[in-house]
Design brief:
Blueprint lengths: L1 E7 L6 E7 L4 E7 L6 E8 L5 E4 L16 E6 L13 H9 L3 H15 L2 H12 L3 H11 L10 H19 L4 H15 L1 H12 L2 H19 L1 H4 L2 H9 L15 H30 L29 H5 L3 H17 L8
Parallel strand pairs: 2-6
Antiparallel strand pairs: 1-2, 3-4, 4-5
Length: about 350
């Protein structure tokens, strides 16, 4: 559905026909004035009658019958990048031309991600009950909201694994390169090879109160990102196109409403990743036969020491890493990404 408004640029007062393809109940967007490049921000919202309306605070609406100058046309679509300066051309059809035969498959990914975004609250409730092992409440919230997926008589195995398998469908939509399943397989294959050592490490970590706090923090961040999906869903198109080696069209823009929310999400993701990296390091060290707490081993070129850090910024163990400055932690995170993407951290330069 295309929603149209006749507005005046708040900066240069140029008359503009604003066309927005509506895909959700609330859809923020930012476009640039074709005349002066000033940002125009707003959102579409679903009114009480079920139909979408524009919410354009601080922007003057015009009567098209009273205007005589040439109209500038901006066309955008909430869940797809596009070129707003393309005039009246459909943003949806433009994206279809860029994706080609892959477009139907991408739309299925997008619809699945959007489906999860509309059900984030019951998912969060279910995960809270899972962490607290309140199985009756977990069964209740899942059967009410996901009855087509939740078994009538869930077993202990269902309760402990279903949410992870369920959310994996969302992760698959976001992970266009298949990094997550490869990393998951790599971790579990290493675990099976040294099950006793991994079991001892896992029990020592899980028994600590801070592990529960970190687990809760990761879940909170995940659900916060999912709740604010309207801000970053349009970027999925670029991620998928790059994964398939397709060129991003010149002039394409991501119609996000608040870039500051994406910046804040990036910072929060960085903090959560820094908190989880020690567990990844311990698991990798066990698999490679190192001391689980060790990070720096000058004699081991396959260790966790990043290339390019000065000697004063290097850390020797996990305890020192947790107290390091942000730039140092970022270097070790980059080192860990080599493991995630290749399975061999020592084979890739950071």
């Amino acid at each position: 559905m295309i929603l149209r408004a006749y507005i005046e640029c708040p900066a240069c007062q140029a008359p503009i026909i604003l066309r927005v393809g509506v895909a959700r109940q609330r859809q923020p967007f930012t476009v640039a004035c074709p005349t002066c490049d000033s940002p125009i921000r707003g959102e579409t919202v679903e009114a009480d009658d079920g139909f979408p309306r524009f919410h354009l605070p601080g922007i003057k609406k015009l009567d098209p019958n009273e205007m005589h100058s040439e109209w500038q046309v901006i066309t955008t679509y909430g869940d797809l990048p596009n070129n707003p300066a393309s005039g009246g051309f459909s943003a949806f059809l433009s994206a279809e031309g860029v994706f080609g035969d892959y477009f139907p498959a991408y739309l299925r990914f997008l619809n699945t991600a959007r489906w999860f975004g509309e059900r984030v609250d019951p998912l969060e409730h279910a995960y809270t009950f899972y962490l607290k092992e309140k199985w009756d409440l977990l069964d209740s919230v899942m059967s009410r909201n996901f009855d087509e997926f939740w078994p009538e008589s869930p077993t202990t195995l269902d309760r402990h694994t279903f949410l992870h398998r369920f959310v994996f469908l969302l992760v698959a939509c976001l992970d266009s390169r298949g990094v997550h399943p490869r990393a998951k397989y790599e971790v579990w294959s290493r675990t099976r090879r040294k099950e006793a050592e991994f079991s001892e490490c896992a029990h020592s970590v899980i028994s600590k109160p801070e592990f529960t706090a970190i687990n809760r923090r990761i879940a909170d961040q995940f659900f916060n990102l999912l709740r604010n999906n309207a801000e970053w869903f349009p970027t999925l198109a670029i991620v998928h196109l790059r994964a398939r080696g397709k060129q991003i069209p010149q002039g394409w823009q991501v119609p996000v409403g608040r870039i500051d929310s994406l910046r804040d999400a990036y910072r929060q993701n960085f903090e959560v990743s820094c908190q989880m990296l020690p567990l990844v390091i311990r698991m990798q060290n066990i698999a490679e036969g190192r001391d689980p707490e060790s990070i720096r081993d000058l004699a081991d070129t396959g260790g966790w020491t990043p290339r390019g850090l000065s000697s004063r910024d290097l850390v020797n163990n996990i305890n020192q890493y947790t107290r390091a400055k942000a730039a140092t932690k970022e270097a070790y995170l980059s080192r860990s990404r080599s493991f995630v993407t290749t399975g061999t951290p020592h084979s890739v330069e950071t």
